[in-house]
């Protein structure tokens, strides 16, 4: 029985193609199974990349939120500067002089909204000592144009909350960086910039120790001093124009005389008097042509009452010079022409005199 | 994972054995191929070292038997069994041996394992018990009952005839 079973089963042989296909199947599996063996590495790498991305996003986000985009400087004598991120929160504070550092020493300002930070600073005991009557509280804001006005009003309102009036100025971010390189707070740097326009000798070191009130006093001193210069300038200019006009008038006179012949002869000395005494700068801006008839009026008023009629003035002023030179004999009253004729000799003489000059 | 040469050597060495287990459990060539490949795939992926050749052989036997049983347990397989291939396979086997094989194949599964392991592979009842996960005494009774059934089938020509009849 055992033998029969054994013999019978001996007949059962694996078909060669089955062995072959199995070997192929196994080697195929082996090749494919390399994938699973690689998979953990692949997933590990993927996880690592994801982690790195998360980390980068975190770091990027943090630095994005911690990057100062605007600066608010508070200057009295203590100089304090708040660096704000794009959410207007304080990312860092810096005292630019010992007084400023003293104030900041115990204040937890980081992460606070800038208005809250300003109120905290204003309310601190150390700051109170400096916020006396004569002190100038100045906010200097360096921010982009969008934030600037908002920050300005925010800072001022939070200062007024604390019962202090304040001034504020805004500067561009570039000068903020400039100020940092000089180690000066924005407000003082801005004041210094104003000051050196008048006085080159003021150094940054001087500024650092000066209070804002002092800086402002000096600036305003210079500013008020400066105001006088423009006045003098305008005075000088006036004088110039006067002279110029005078000169021109003289010329026209000469011309008139020449053209009109002797018509003005007798008046001339009188006219000269009028020039010297009666001429006022307010007429200075008149052009020679316009001035001319007025002059005649003047002379007329001053010396010959018959002259100053409105009609005559108008007719004279509307006419151009060449026609005018001819017009007086036509339009003028007969007596005038007579007088003018009478003065012929004088006028001529005067002209000669002048030419001698 | 085992090296390619080791696996190929195992395939060459144990192919017939696994093939026989598949033969008396499974009913067609396609299933046999599936299970055959699966057994050696398991061997390839099995990393624990074997104590010796015997251990390796016993391991493969157990894996093959379990693979066949699992395969037959599959609902889809159980319901689409085709007996035709069995007779195609058996056709190549000489008449005298075919008789015995058919007799063995007609036994229920648990008897086939015990009979095959005992009479062909030459394992003792204790060893069979280990391989099949059964008690030694259970194996004894399986063997004696299986032997009885085989005797009945092989001595009774009608039984063989009727088996053929029902098979066809």
Keywords, separated by commas or semicolons:
heterodimer; A: 357 residues; alpha+beta; 3 domains; 5-stranded mixed beta sheet; 16 helices; 8% strand; disordered C terminus; B: 168 residues; mainly alpha; Rna Polymerase Sigma Factor, Chain: A; Arc Repressor Mutant, subunit A; 10 helices
Overview of the structural elements:
The complex is a heterodimer of chains A (357) and B (168). Chain A has a five-stranded mixed sheet, sandwiched between helices. Chain A folds into three domains: 16-64; 70-210, no CATH class; 231-356, no CATH class. Chain A contains 16 helices and five strands. In chain A, strand 4 (138-142), helix 6 (145-161) and strand 5 form a beta-alpha-beta unit. The longest helix of chain A has 51 residues, at 16-66. The model of chain A is unreliable at 227-252, 260-267 and 282-357 (pLDDT under 50). In chain A, helix 8 (186-195) packs parallel to helix 10. Chain A is α+β, with helices and mostly antiparallel strands and 357 residues long. Chain B is mainly alpha-helical. Chain B has two domains: 1-83, Rna Polymerase Sigma Factor, Chain: A (Orthogonal Bundle); 93-168, Arc Repressor Mutant, subunit A, CATH 1.10.10.10. Chain B has ten helices and no strands. In chain B, helix 7 crosses helix 9 (136-155). Chain B is globular.
């Amino acid at each position: 029985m055992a033998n029969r079973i054994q013999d019978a089963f001996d007949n059962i042989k694996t078909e060669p193609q089955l062995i072959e296909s199995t070997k192929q199947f196994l080697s195929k599996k082996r090749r494919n199974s390399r994938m699973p063996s690689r998979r953990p590495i692949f997933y590990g790498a993927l996880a690592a990349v994801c982690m790195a991305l998360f980390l980068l996003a975190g770091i990027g986000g943090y630095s994005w939120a911690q990057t100062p985009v605007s600066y608010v400087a508070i200057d009295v004598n203590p100089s304090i500067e708040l660096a704000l991120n794009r959410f207007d929160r304080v990312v860092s504070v810096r005292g630019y002089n010992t007084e400023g550092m003293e104030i900041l020493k115990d204040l937890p300002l980081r992460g606070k909204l800038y208005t809250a930070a300003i109120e905290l600073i204003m309310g601190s005991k150390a700051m109170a000592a400096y916020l006396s009557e004569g002190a100038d509280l100045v906010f200097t804001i360096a921010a982009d144009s969008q934030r600037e006005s908002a920050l300005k009003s925010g800072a001022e309102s939070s200062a007024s909350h604390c019962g202090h009036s304040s001034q504020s100025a805004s500067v561009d971010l570039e000068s903020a960086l400039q100020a940092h390189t000089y180690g000066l707070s924005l407000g003082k740097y801005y004041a210094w910039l104003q000051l050196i326009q008048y006085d080159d000798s003021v150094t940054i070191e001087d500024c650092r120790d000066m209070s804002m009130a002092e800086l402002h006093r000096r600036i305003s001193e210079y500013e008020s001093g400066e105001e006088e210069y423009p006045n003098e300038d305008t005075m000088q200019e006036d004088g110039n124009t006067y002279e110029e006009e005078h000169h021109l008038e003289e010329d026209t006179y000469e011309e008139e005389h020449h053209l009109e012949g002797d018509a003005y002869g007798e008046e001339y000395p009188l006219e000269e008097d009028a020039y010297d005494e009666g001429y006022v700068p307010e007429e200075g801006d008149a052009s020679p042509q316009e001035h001319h008839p007025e002059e005649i009026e003047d002379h007329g008023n001053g010396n010959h009452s018959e002259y100053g009629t409105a009609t005559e003035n108008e007719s004279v002023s509307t006419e151009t010079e060449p026609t005018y030179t001819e017009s007086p004999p036509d339009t003028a009253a007969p007596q005038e022409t007579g007088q003018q004729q009478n003065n012929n000799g004088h006028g001529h003489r005067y002209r000669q005199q002048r030419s001698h000059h | 994972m085992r090296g390619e040469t080791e696996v190929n050597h195992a395939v060459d060495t144990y192919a017939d054995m696994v093939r026989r287990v598949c033969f008396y459990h499974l009913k067609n060539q396609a299933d046999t191929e599936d299970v055959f490949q699966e057994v050696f795939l398991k061997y390839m992926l099995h990393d624990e070292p074997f104590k010796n050749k015997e251990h390796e052989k016993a391991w493969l036997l157990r894996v093959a038997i379990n693979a066949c049983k699992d395969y037959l347990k599959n609902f889809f397989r159980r319901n689409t069994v085709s007996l035709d291939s069995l007779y195609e396979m058996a056709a190549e086997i000489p008449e005298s041996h075919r008789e015995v094989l058919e007799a063995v194949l007609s036994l229920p599964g648990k008897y086939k394992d015990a009979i095959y392991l005992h009479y062909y592979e030459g394992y003792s009842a204790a060893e069979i018990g280990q391989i099949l996960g059964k008690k030694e005494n259970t194996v004894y009774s399986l063997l004696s009952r299986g032997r009885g059934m085989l005797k009945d089938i092989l001595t009774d020509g009608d039984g063989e005839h009727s088996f053929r009849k029902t098979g066809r």
